[in-house]
Amino acid sequence: MGKVLYCHSKGKKPDKKNFPIPCFFTSSIAKARQKDYSVIICDYSFIKKRRKADLSFLKEKISLLSFEDEQAIDLGLTKKLGFFDFFSLNGGKANILFKVKRAQLVAELKKQNLSLENKISQKNFHSEKLILIDSLTGCHNWRYFYEEAKRQLVRSKRYSEKVSFIGIDIDHFRRINEIYGIKVADKLIKKIVKLISKNLRKEDTLSRWRDDEFFVIAPHLNKKDLIDITHRLQKAISTYRFKYKNVNLRVQVSIGAVNFPEDSIFSSKDVVLALGRAIAQAKRKGGNAVVISSKHQLKPAIKKKERVTIKEMRKKVEKLNILLNKDVLDIIYGFARAVEAKDAYTGSHVEYTAEIAKNIAKELSLPANEIKDIERAAVLHDLGKVGIDEKILSKKGALTDKEREIIKTHPSIASEILKDIYGLRGAIPGVLYHHERFDGKGYPLGLKGDEIPLAARIVAVADVFQALISDRPYRKAYSKEKAIKIIKEESGSHFDPKIVKIFLKVIQKID
Description:
Layout: E1 4-7, E2 24-26, H1 29-32, E3 39-43, H2 44-48, E4 62-67, H3 75-80, E5 85-88, H4 93-132, E6 140-141, H5 142-159, E7 163-170, H6 173-180, H7 182-198, E8 205-210, E9 213-219, H8 223-238, E10 241-244, E11 247-250, E12 253-260, H9 268-284, E13 290-292, H10 310-342, H11 344-363, H12 368-380, H13 390-393, H14 401-407, H15 410-418, H16 428-432, H17 454-468, H18 480-489, H19 497-510
Parallel strand pairs: 1-2, 1-3, 3-4, 4-5, 6-8, 12-13
Antiparallel strand pairs: 7-9, 7-12, 8-9, 10-11
Helix pairs in contact: 5-9, 6-7, 10-11, 11-12, 11-17, 11-19, 12-17, 17-18
């Protein structure tokens, strides 16, 4: 049970021995205001001398009023000052004990109830955060935006104020996700949120509308300032170089904006549709563009329908595929020659690496398009070396730590070169992650086990085997028997054991 404080007038302190329950005694009203005590007992003379004082705090506590005898009991005063109960000192120890114990019990229940209310309040707050806050970025989510946009439009209509809405869509985000994986994509999203937030005003609110799209509510923003802020956002994002471990890339955004009352937006739905049209217009310009709704006609372009038979369509597709594959092959061999010019070892041995990788993929019964992507990845896996100094590539001695870090950038350089070539996009995972290790100690991201794309796990084995049986600037080639032994020893640490098993089968057939 909680502590009890007995407030008495000076010179009228009750006898502790005759009082039936342990108490702390005081003649100071300041002591009664403290939170240390669960029950406050005030004698009548103590209260009577302080009637002009502020005694409202007693209503917030479990307090009892004590009288000298039963004839002096004042029920009106007890009720007026919000006392929980009263007793008389000559009413018997049992009665006093019962009333004080009951007051302590009520105080304890009140404390527990308050604790439960706080817990419920915290849970409600947490639930509200889950409902209205984006878990990845910490900014508001689409639910919040929809309700807040509605509230801002109502306010703007009522007080004849302006309000602007901005939509920011990351160009080619799906491609980034596919090439670099969820971990990098999530880091990129968080960084973009920081960049956007840094370039907004305090009164602006940012919401994540979906994976790669963000909406901003900007109250009291006129058209000139809206144009300024959208272009500032575009510049801040497009000029920023995102770096995570050994991944280094730039992203661009398409931005659309609408303004009330200049644009015909009267509901949250109107805002979302108008922002969608503005962003689509920016995308049609090739991305990395800003479109302010009222400055553009956002009607979709209507094309005349052409009647094309299925047979004609099939022929067109076949022709396009032939042209595309021819162009892609030209690009691949052009890249291979570029690498050979920088690194004679890599350029002259990629065919054998590709042959091993292709046969492993076939043994796994992968679809034809995946086998082709793996073969291309094996040819292009060291493409990024075109961006590495030849002195480092041909160095005969041990590399310095700095030189080693430079070498580690070549997968990212290659993926940057390949990402804008549609026909080679499927080869990027095998190129970017072929230096990851099965135990998670590789680079660029330190992926582990099945986190590493299958193509990269295949290329890794083929590449290392080819490296082992080739002369390098710093050592002579190993025999094939020695190289196979090393591959076996590294199974489960450097390489996927499943791929090693298939490799051992494939290498016998090739040789």
